[in-house]
Amino acid sequence: MLSACFSWPDKFSVFWNHVMKEMIRLGVKSLGIVILMSAFMGGVIVIQTNAAIDSPLIPAYTVGFTTRQSVILEFAPTIICLILAGIVGSSISSELGTMRITEQIDALDIMGVNSASFLILPKIIAAVIIFPILIMYSMATGLVGGWLACQSLDNISSQTYLMGLQWYWDPFYLQYALIKTAIFAFIITSVSACEGYHASGGTLEVGRSSTKAVIYSCMTILLTNYVITQLLLL
Amino acid sequence: MIEVKNIFKGFNGVEILKDVTFTFEAGKTNLIIGQSGSGKSVLTKCIVGLLDPDRGQVLYDGRDLAAMKAKEKKAIRTEIGMLFQGGALFDSMTVIENVEFPLQMFTKMKPNERRDRARFCLDRVNIKDKDGLYPAEISGGMQKRVAIARAIAMQPRYLFCDEPNSGLDPVTAIVIDNLIQEITQEFNITTVVITHDMNSVLEIGENIMFINKGENWWVGDRNSILKTENEEVNNFVYVSKFMSQFRDQI
Question: Which pTM does this prediction carry?
Answer without folding.
Answer: 0.85
